[in-house]
Amino acid sequence: MRAFAEKIAAAMGAPRTISLAVKNISDLDAARVSWVDSDLRAELSRAGFQVSAAGAEEIEVNVTLSKNVDGYVWVAEIRSQAGEQVVIEAVNQPRAAQESARTAPVLRKSVVVQRTESLLDFAETAGPEGARSLLLLEPDRMVILRGQGDNWAEHEAAPISHSHPWPRDARGELIAGESGEFRALLPGVLCTGKSSPALTLSCREGPEARWPLDENGGALWFAADRNYFSSSTLRDGAVSSVAPAWYSMAADPANGDARWIGAGADGNARLFEKGQTGSLVLGRWGDDVVSLPAACGANWEVLTTGSGDWTQADQLQIHEITGQSAPLSGQPLEFPGPILALWPGKNGEPARAISRDLQTGMYEAATVSVTCGN
Amino acid sequence: MKLRPCLLLAATSILLAVAPARTARRPRYGGILRWDMAASVDSPNFDASVSAPAGSEALQLRNLIFSASGGGNSSKGTASGPFRVVEWQAGKRARLAANEDYAGGRAYIDSIEIEMGRSAKERLLDLELGKTDLAEIPAEEMRHAAERGVRLTHSQPDELIAIVFVKGRPLAEDIRAREALARVIDRVSIADFIVQKEGQAAGGLLPQWSSGIEFLFSAAANPAGAKELWSQIPGSPKISVGYDAGDALEQAIAERIAVNAHESGIAVGTIATAGSGTTSARVDARLLRLRMGSASPRETLTGFIGALGPVTGIREDVPPEKAPAEDIYACERSVLSTYRVVPVVWLPQVYGVSERVRNWKAPGPGESWGLTDVWLNDSEGRGTSK
User: What pTM was estimated for this model as a whole?
Assistant: First the structure.
């Protein structure tokens, strides 16, 4: 604001009485416009100008709050007997609040990092001497960021070798240990390494990679040249035969990993139970489903993405599994673009979501937790 | 809580929740996309050095076959883009198949079937009858298409229809004549009635959504001012305005401008010319379509001034990269104050897509059609067994 006011003041020369009118043609809300108006008046007054409402002063300043392809643009048209001048100031786009309504259960999103590069997964790790450290899995790189104040700075990176092009919807999960070791599961590729004291990375290829599903040997097998799991091996050996493939599968953490929900490539979410040969179709959910740690009730709760496609905004919703049905619970958590990946947290940790803001094009890594509200 | 065993044993799959059919997000593989093209392309091996208009179907088709960075050799027909040619009937139809080795990852759809040389009427009919999945729709037909139930997407307004004065013509060299014509045009009614409210009255060379400052250039008509200027020109001149004979929208706009001018006592005649790219010796001014090649105000201004120069004689130095917004504004104002180019209306690019098409987004200026990311809803579950 000060920079804009200084530009206006410089254009007008010596301080004098001016009239000021502010008009909004952008999508700013009334509260923000009011704040801009009063702040601009204050800054101009501080610069020595006497500011009145729009009227017949010697100098008339008409400010328009506009928007262009890059963000907000504030334009001042300064009219005086000497002629007309135009002052333009590009303004950073304010970020909208991202929190769902506070009803029970309440989903909360905490943005960890925003990047222009695409992301598959992330993990917060401890750096040397307790420094904040963030491990990022990009399609072709493993990257370590180090915390610098409120920001992150790229510290180290290692390329991920793979002989074949990734599927267009490349997927990858990062499983980080407590001592800096990690595994990165990618389509047909398994990478292992350490993030501390220096980044090491070793990758090997196989036709299909085994992705762990739970702590009891359940696993999913990823099709190396597609974006889905071609089969799954559940704890008791039951293999899904109803759906041809899975986009994701979640195990019930509180029930001895004896129940699973899979999001099938046919669009249906199915519930499996240990010892049963069939499955129960729960409905047409989004493609990504993860289990939530017990939060607000005795029932198993899962988090799912919305429906639509990647040209649309997205949301996360909680389904509460109550016997043969899975009603929605609480309010959805809205995202300003598609959720490209959703991975479960371990040991009660929050789930991890990667989304892409349709307006800015930025990739956003965030954790999603659930608490019980009123 | 356990499931009742009898339910599970009785059937392998029981649909309990009957919800409206919704599509899941993650792309599905498989299927054939049908594309009705307006253009006719004789060969897929057209040379990259031959420039096609920004955003044209021919350029989009080329981008599907030859990757800009993939080392593709167009003269040998080597596909390095997301699709490869499997059949080509010159100017009539073609079939492309997904390139399994595409560096950016295999496309989701298996193939694209292209019908070329389809008229706007045929394209609309094919969309209505479900005979095609994708086709461009003229902006002025957008409302009509929507009323007929066609699923539509459109870009931001990125194509400017403007009047350009042809350098060297006596009337075109008189700034009073140029300004009079600029002031007499009722752009709002052109946008509302001829373009059916699907376009925007244009005051500037850059649209409001791109520059944020188009509102500084008034699009309002000023018939009284036009009349005053015209009265200063001796004799009884007549401005001849050309339009592309094959472009019904240009013709309608030219005729509306002639009516606007007549109401202010300005004589304007309209002349159909062969193609918009030719300069007829008979016209003082003509309508021209200018398509943005980028969302960036500076790059658009550079492109437009470059395109206008040979016809109008406009020479203006565009500010360097990262120049202050005031400099872009000053450059735009300088060009417009010559009245050698007179913005009339902004048009969006409009696409009709079938209900089964997913992940389709109308491309912005300079963007390629995202057919590599498109998938078909009825391919759910298909393409998952290999």
Answer: 0.78
